[in-house]
Amino acid sequence: MPDITMCRGTYCFRAESCYRHTAEANPYMQSYFTDPPLDDNDECPYYWPIETHLKGKNDDKRKDSTQAR
To answer: Distance between CA atoms of 34 and 16, rounded to whole angstroms?
Structure first.
């Protein structure tokens, strides 16, 4: 479960490709943006592409496997 501020994706056209919207929320306590953090052009400065998040996880796994040798 992520330790991030999540987003409900309201009015965001990129919500389905954003990790902040699609991550599994902590069922006990999870922080969310109170309002969608969209600017005047409906862009989000906090947009976190899912691919970027997954790439980071894969990089960490590679580091762990090389350190174990």
So the answer is: 19
Instruction: Please write the tens of the pLDDT for every residue from 47-61.
Output: 999 988 777 665 555
Q: In whole angstroms, what is the distance from residue 45 CA to residue 39 CA? A: 8
The model's pTM: 0.72
**Which of residues 33 and 54 earns the better pLDDT score?**
33
Helix, strand or coil, per DSSP, at residue 65: helix
Is residue 50 within 8 Å of residue 17, measured between CB atoms? yes
**Sequence-separated (6 or more) residues with CB below 8 Å from residue 38:** 11, 12, 44
Q: What residue ranges do the domains of the chain occupy? A: 15-67
CB 24 within 8 A of CB 1: yes
